[in-house]
Each structure stands twice: as structure tokens, then as C-alpha cells.
Amino acid sequence: MTEVVAPQDTAQHGLKAHSDGDWANRAPVQTRSDRPKSTNVSDFEVVTGREATWKFTPVAKLDALLNGELDGGRIPVTVTEAAGVTSEWIARDDARIGRAGIPEERGAAAAWSAFGEAHLVTIASDERTTTVITRDALDAAPRAGHTVIEAAPNSRGLVIIENSGAAQLSENVEIVLQEGAHLTLVSVQQWDDEAIHLASHYATVGRDASLTHIVVSLGGGIVRLNPSIHLDHEGANGEALGAYFADAGQHLEHQVYMDHDAPHTRSRVTYKGALQGEGAHTVWIGDVLIRRSATGTDSYEQNRNLVLSEGTRADSIPNLEIETGDIEGAGHASATGRFDDEHIFYLQSRGISEEEARKLVVRGFLLEVIAQIGDEATEERLQAAVEAELADSVRVAVKGA
């Protein structure tokens, strides 16, 4: 009689699918570069709020943008005229779309799946020009948008995106810098109190090109703006700057990704925020990835938060991944705190009232970023907006002291 021997199970002990899903194929993402990417919303599961990229976000208020049907028609915009700058609408299958990056999460993928045409702005001037893109005529209907901003080789430009009024907008913004281009891109959020804005910005920076990306978030019920800057060519430089002021019940979130993928690249990340009022919530997550190919990298990121009253919450998480030891330097820092009593005392000793001293401290704290915009009219308007925010918060703080 021939003995039948059962085959041995050589699989790793315990590596089996569980009843709660295909566990074996759902290993946690270990590095930022391993996150799944797709332009198709169906490739991403429904957001629960437990995901790493969503755990600080009030996802229950975002159902229409994450799971609903979005209007993908043209977003009403106005663009100022400038020498060497063109503005046009292009079809979603145009080859100029998708060069800077694609979504890593459901919100951005939903917007990408829904938009019909993209707004393309091209900067081709070798002298610095200023272009303002104004979006103040939206309504509260859920919308999807797509914008492409391209800087031609050796061009110079400043592009300011002004957002105000009512909105329920989910969008993707692509920023493409060709070789030797220098571009400053500013996104200003001064939405109405009930507005919701989800935005993913993707940038690719060419050889010896330089991008300064500035975010100023002051208005809106929920603002979640996440820039991803890819330094894909040797000598590329990326600076990501942000200033934000959260009031009671307001949620302002910024997740910044700096991807070094070429030799001798440089990056600096500085985000500064202030919070006041019950339920004011800010989130900053900074990811810096220095790949094996990015020898000679010089990188630093920091986030500072100034708490002006009780009942606020500031989440600040810097992350740094280094895959090569041959770098110039890399570091990160994060701090959240209240007014420095020594600063206030010093100013009061010079005859300045406590209320005015507090204003001066906050003003200097935030305007360090705003002053980098490079457009006097915009800087003055945002300084005035910060002053308006401070008028109530500082008065309340002084009375309660």
C-alpha cells in the first residue's frame, strides 16, 4: 500500500487572511513614497477618519466632497493680464495634465475624477511678472476643480490665487517649473465662515529651478490644503511657507511633503500659526523624504504655533526620512506655546500697553511669512486681515488675564 503524505504548510505562521479583510495584502505603508496613487476615486476606500492622512480631519462634514457627485464644470475665475502670461481652459485628456503628481487620497481623487476641463496658466516672461487668479463667485454647491500653472524655462513670475466668498470646493493644483524657472505661488484662503475647501497642490521643480510656495489661511470653516513639492532634478530648490490664524470652531489643516529625488537639492519649510477661541483647531504635518538619489541634499522644516486662548488644539507632526548618508544637512523642529511673558514685559517696560504688546508679538510672528509674498498690495491687505483677527482676541485675552 502506498502511503499518502499530506503536503507541509510552508507559509509563515499566522500570516492568514482574517475575517475583517484581506490582511495579508494590507500591510501598513512604511514610507511616504509607498503611498498608493490614483486619479480614480474608486481606487480609494471610503474615508472613516481612522486613516493616517485623515485622523485629524472632521471627515463627517466632508461627505459631499468625499462621496457625493461633484460639479466638474468650469470654476468661475478672473485672471489679471500680464506680459508673457497666458490663461486658457484645456480638456482633461490634455498631455499637460498629470505631470506634477497625482492623488494619494480619496478627496483629491474624487476631484480628479469629476473635473471636465483644467484651467492652465503659463508664465513665459524672463522678467518677473505678477498674476492674480481671483475666485470669489462660487456658491455652496459641491464642486471639483483642476488648475495647472506652468513656468517656462528661465521664466520669472509671481502667481497669487485669491479665494473668498462661499464655497464647497475640492481641487487639484499642478505646478510645473521648467529648467531655470523661478516662481512664487501664493494661495490665500479668506473664505466665508461656512466654506469648505480641500486642495492638493503638486509641484515638480526642474533643474536649477526654484519654487517658493506660500499658503495663507485666514478664513473658512474647514480648509485642508496639502502641498507636495517634488525636487526631481539636480539643483532644484523648494521653499514652503505658511501662515494661518484659526478662530473658534475653525479647522485649518496643512500637510506638507518635500520629496528630494535628485542630487544637490535644497528645501526649507516654515509654517506659523495662531489659534484663538473655543474649538479652534490647526493641523500641520510635515513630511521630508530624502531618497538614495538625493546626495548633497540640504533640508530643514519647522512649525510654530502660538496659542492665544483656552479651548484650542494644535497638532504638529514633523517627519523626516533619509535614505542616503551623503547629505549636506537635514533637520526639523516643532513648537506650540503661549505668549512669551518676557517679551510682553519688555515691551511694557518701554511704555507699550499690554494689549498693544500682545498685538505686536502676534503681528511679528505671522507677518514674517506674509512679508515673503513680494506683492505690496497683497501683503498690506493680509496684514490688515491679521490686525482684524487680533482686535478681538487680544482684547479678550487682556480682560481675562
UniProtKB/TrEMBL annotation:
One of its GO terms (biological process) is iron-sulfur cluster assembly. Residues 144-365 form the SUF system FeS cluster assembly SufBD core domain. Residues 1-40 are annotated as: Disordered. InterPro entries: Fe-S_cluster_assembly_SufBD, SUF_FeS_clus_asmbl_SufBD_core, SUF_FeS_clus_asmbl_SufBD_sf, SUF_FeS_clus_asmbl_SufD. It comes from the Bacteria. It holds the Pfam family SUFBD_core. Signal peptide: none annotated. Belongs to the iron-sulfur cluster assembly SufBD family. This is Fe-S cluster assembly protein SufD. It comes from Leucobacter edaphi.
